[in-house]
Amino acid sequence: MGTAGDLLDLVRLYWPLLLGNALEWYEFAVYGYMESYMEQNFFEGSAIATWAGFTATFLARPVGGLFLGTIGDLFGRRIAVIMSVIGMLIGTAGQGLLPCPRNHRDSPWVSMAGVVALFCLRLLQGLCTGGEISSVSTYLVEVGSHRSLGRCTGLLSVTVNLGFMLARVVIWTLQSHLGDSAMLQWGWRVPFLLALLPGSVAVAGRICLRESGEFVREHKEADSDEDGIPGHSPWQHMQLALQSHFPAILVGIFGVCNIAVLQYGGLIWTNSFLKKHGAPTNTVMTAGVCSRLIQMSLAILVGWLADVHGLGLVTLAGAWTLMSAGLPMFVALESDPANPVNVCITYGIMYALMASLCGSVVFMYVAELFPTSVRNLGVGISFNVGFCFFGGFAPVLAEASLDWTPHGPGLLLSAAGAVTFLTVLASVKLQEAGKVQLAHVRPVPYLGTWAHGSQNLEESLESLTGAHARMVVTYLCQSGAVCDRTTPGGATPLYVSCYNGHLPIAQYLCSQRSDVCKRTPTGATLLHAAAQEGQLEAGAGPGRRALPLRHLLPALHTFLCLWVRVCLCVCAAHRGF
Predict the structure, then answer these.
(1) Number of Cβ within a 10 Å radius of residue 275
(2) What is the CATH number of domain 454-519?
């Protein structure tokens, strides 16, 4: 079966995951796109307070990832995805039914209750969003075909952007038909309530899902594994993840910095920035919808690049692109924000291209960092802490930075790209030092032809086939190439030949006494590599001791300190913060 068949099968069997994920992000984005109405109805015209309400959701995301991630690892991915979509529906519909403080100014208790309830429901949304993204990405990584895993997880990027685009389209349609006055009075409630019907369908579909086969196998085999799931309390499970996989968690946190800041300090916050600086509402909405359509169209293509050239290489390219283009793109946008052509080209197209490279495979990037036994929890912690810290404060910092310099938001975008760029480079060094395993599901390809074993034997096996490949391998081995040398992902030449189905090469390497019993760090054998259509079992592996903070690379420490200092300076410069 080809890769197109893999994607079609994934959609046919797991559509409730994709539908629910699209609705989750629709519900999550509605608040940001209606910031102007929420500002007047709940926060008496304070933009900072309104974005603080948006930030409240991010503060709850790590807790949701921790809670639902532990449930997903101990009791199954299916239970976690059901709980997340139900909680999100409650939080969204509840916001649409809240009393509006603007209409109850003569009753301070009602006004206060409305604001407090809004924050509580936003926190509930954050809890469920944190659990949703970790559980769904874990689910798809475990059930997707390995040869097209980048494209399979790229479907998550499609549904995320579909959710954001639907939020834009719904609000745009309501504004066009109702007008600003009606939207301010009661129309702002409608987008929250519209999610109930499709959300109920997603809940029903997820209830009927089968559990991830990889989780079932891991659960059955855990009785003989000291890091196994049965017999561990939730608290012990959290301790195991933090102690044994702390370096991987750090890589995940800093690895999502670029897309977190670009998503919320670039795409969403800029929507509000353009409206306040004279851009026509229809122009902003059109550019925003085009941006999401471009990202949806390119997600599978970027996933293909990850399948062919490596997940790490695509992540590195996305970070470099944002680091280089973030500031120039915002300067171009800020120079004439009321010009429709400028808005469409810069915000609608260029921002979309940067977001496609940065975000299409980010879910796979984080999920690959962890073995099956702690994958849901590991993704829940690292992804959500990263988005909470970098993405949650991005709109507030972008708004406040305008008082410091008119180019502040652009500097924020470029700095975020630099953080992820350095993280990917540092993670390769950490893997070479044995501190972290970057790919637990699919070891190769990861970083293209960079950082592979000497003599380029693995590269030859991946790029050549047939008689020519046999001749190249024979020549390299006769020239002294090491037959059992491994890539950073733990794959030997024999493993790569089995994975790609090159029987003559495998036979030759066996005749050269290559180790046929050797396993990758994830526990995969040659039989797993040969069974490309099946599931590659990724064992938990022996637990590693926690990495002391003093062993972290100085570059990460320096950049974290720089980021904190910039945040503090920007906040201090804003007189009303």
Answers:
(1) 17
(2) 1.25.40.20
Gyration radius of the chain's alpha carbons: 24
Cβ partners under 8 Å of residue 417, min gap 6? 258, 319, 320, 321, 322, 323, 324, 326, 358
Length of the chain counted residue by residue: 577
Structure tokens at 162: 């579909």
Token pair 């910031």 is found at: 35
How many Å apart are CA 173 and CA 169, to the nearest integer? Answer: 6
Residue 418 backbone class (left: φ over 0; alpha: ψ -120 to 50; beta: rest): alpha
pLDDT in 10s for each residue of the chain, 577 residues = 456 777 888 888 888 889 888 888 887 778 877 777 887 878 777 777 777 777 777 788 888 889 999 898 888 888 999 999 898 888 888 888 888 877 766 677 777 788 888 888 888 888 888 888 889 999 888 888 888 889 989 999 999 889 888 888 898 888 888 888 888 888 888 988 888 888 888 888 999 888 887 888 777 766 554 444 444 678 888 888 888 899 999 999 999 999 999 988 888 888 888 888 888 878 888 898 899 999 999 999 999 999 988 899 999 999 999 999 999 999 999 888 888 899 999 999 999 999 999 999 999 999 999 988 889 999 999 999 998 889 878 888 888 888 888 898 999 999 999 999 999 999 999 988 888 889 888 877 887 644 443 334 444 444 444 444 555 566 566 556 666 677 656 677 777 777 666 666 776 677 666 776 777 666 666 666 665 434 333 333 333 333 333 433 444 455 455 545 545 554 554 444 3
Listed in order, the ranges of the chain carrying CATH 1.20.1250.20 are 15-203+244-441+557-573
Between CA 506 and CA 498 the distance in angstroms is 6
Q: Measured between alpha carbons, how far is 439 from 428 in angstroms, rounded to an integer?
A: 11
Sign of CA dihedral 465, 470, 473, 479: negative
Q: Is the Cβ–Cβ distance between 367 and 309 less than 8 Å?
A: no
* Distance, CA of 462 to CA of 493 (rounded, Å): 9
Report the Cα–Cα distance between both ends of the chain, in Å, rounded.
57
Token output for 195: 């999610």
As a whole number of angstroms, the distance between CA 195 and CA 191 comes to: 7
Is-cis flag, bond preceding 101, omega within 30? Answer: no
Name the residue among 434, 427, 481 with its Cα closest to residue 459: 481
CA atoms of 127 and 65, how far apart (whole Å) = 7
Amino acid (one-letter) located at 478: Q
Nearest residue to 373 via CA among 547, 235, 489, 227: 227
- CB neighbour class for 161 (10 Å; exposed up to 12, middle 13-18, buried from 19): buried
CB neighbourhood size of 88 (10 A) = 29
C-alpha torsion sign, points 204, 209, 215, 221: positive
- CA–CA dist 408, 412 (Å, integer): 6
Q: Where in the chain are all domains bearing CATH 1.25.40.20? A: 454-519
Answer for the pair 364, 438: CB distance below 8 angstroms, yes or no: no
Question: Is there a contact between 416 and 257 (Cβ–Cβ < 8 Å)?
Answer: yes
Q: Which superfamily, per CATH, for 15-203+244-441+557-573?
A: MFS general substrate transporter like domains (1.20.1250.20)
Q: What's the rounded Cα separation, in Å, for the pair 27 and 542?
A: 40
